[in-house]
Amino acid sequence: MKSIKVLAIDGGGIRGIIPAVLLAEIQKRLGSDLCQTFDLICGTSTGGIIALGIGTGCSRGQPYSPAQLLNLYLENGAAIFKKRFLTSLRNWARPKYSPRPLQSILLKFFGATEFSAALTPLLISSYDLEGQVPFFFKSHRIAAVPQYNWPVVSIARATSAAPTFFPPVQLQREGKGYALVDGGVFVNNPAMAAYAEARAVYPEAAQFMIVSAGTGTRQDRIAYARARKWGLLGWARQIAPVFMDSASEAVDYELKSMPGCTYHRLQVENLETASGAMDDASPQNLANLQSVARRYLDSVSGHVDAICAELAEGRGSDMPGIGRASVIKT
User: Fold this and answer.
1) For residue 228, what pLDDT is reported?
2) Do residues 79 and 116 lie in contact, with contact meaning Cβ atoms separated by under 8 Å?
3) What's the pLDDT at 325?
4) What phi and psi, each to the nearest 5 degrees, are found at residue 124?
5) Burial track 256-295 (b if 16+ CB lie within 10 A, e otherwise)
6) How far apart are alpha carbons 4 and 173 in whole angstroms?
7) For residue 216, which of 7, 13, 5, 6 has the smallest C-alpha distance?
C-alpha cells in the first residue's frame, strides 16, 4: 500500500528562498507538479505563501512552480522589506514594515483566487490573538463548511504577519472577528501539525511520508552577557526570531520516532555567508541564500534522489483534491 505523502514548509521570511530552491529541484527530478505528488501540503509564514502558490490554481487555474515562487522573493523581497531612514526608530513603537507592499505583491501573484481552488488538501498556520489559540486554514474543510473558504491573499497575509515586523491581520467570519499573526509563533516548523492533520484526513492510512523543507538554521548566538539585563525593549528586538526558530529540533525528534512515519528533513545547517535575518533582502544576501541552498542540494543529492524515488509512486490516496473533507471534524 502506498504511503500518504505530506509536505511541510518552514517559516523564515526572506529565507523562504531556500525551500523554494529545494522544492524546485524536487519538482524538476519528479517531472510533475508537487500538488499532484503530495496528499497534504502545509506551510507556516513564508512557507505558507509557498504552499499556497504550489497548492492552488492561482496562476490561470494552474499552480505556480517553486521556481516561479523563487522569483517572487528575488524580484520583490527588497520592496517587502524596504529599509528607510527611520525604520529602526519606527520599530520601537510600531511594526517595522508597512504591510502595503506585501499586500500589493500578494495581490499581483494570487489575484482573486479563493482557498477553494486548492488542488490538494492544504493546511496553513496562523495564530489568533483574540482567542489566544492556534488558527489553521484547512482547504479540505470547505466542502463541509463553506465558511472555511477565504481569499488566498488574506490567508497569505495572516500566516506571514510576523510580530514586530508586520501588523496583525483582521478577518471576519459569521460576525466573529479574528486578529491573526504569523503561525511561526507556535509552529515555525509545521511538520508535526501536518502529520497530525494527515492522520485526521486519511484515518485509514498506515504509512506516512513527511518531507520537511527548512529555511536554514540561524547561526547568530545571544550570549548571556548581552541578554542578562534585557527588559521589554531589549527583548522586543529579538523575541520574534528567537521563538520562531526554537522548536524545530523538537519536531525532528518527535517525528523520527513516530511509528508508521518516514521523516525526511531538508535543512541547511550552516548558512555560511548568508544572513539568518528574516528581512535581509539585500542583493548580496539574495544571492548568498540561493548559493547556500544549491551547495546544500549538491551535498544531499543522493538523499534527494531517495526522496524522489519514494514520491514517484504518487499520492497514497485515491481521492485527489479534498480527500475525506466531508468527514473532518477538527
Assistant:
1) 73
2) no
3) 35
4) -120, 130
5) eeeeebbbbbbbbeebeebbbbbbbbbeebbebbbebbee
6) 32
7) 13
Q: Is the dihedral of CA 103, 107, 108, 113 positive or negative?
A: positive
Q: Are 156 and 169 in contact (CB under 8 A)?
A: no
Query: Would you give the distance in Å from CA 105 to the centre of its chain?
Result: 17
Residue-wise pLDDT for 176-193, tens only, equals 899 999 998 889 999 999
Tell me which H or E stretch contains 181: strand 176-182
CA atoms within 13 A on the CB side of 192: 16
**What's the pLDDT score for residue 326?**
33
- Check: CB of residue 54 under 8 Å from CB of residue 41: yes
Burial label, 118 (beta-carbon count in 10 A; 0-12, 13-18, 19+): buried
CA–CA separation, 185 vs 1, rounded Å?
A: 37
Q: Name the stretches of the chain with pLDDT < 70.
A: 1, 85-93, 219-224, 227, 229-248, 319-330
The C-alpha atoms of residue 208 and residue 2 are separated, in whole angstroms, by 9
Angle between helices 283-299 and 17-30 (to 10 degrees): 40
Nine-digit cell at 29? 527530478
Please provide the size of the chain in residues.
330
Please tell me the distance from the alpha carbon of residue 281 to that of residue 261, in angstroms, as a whole number: 36
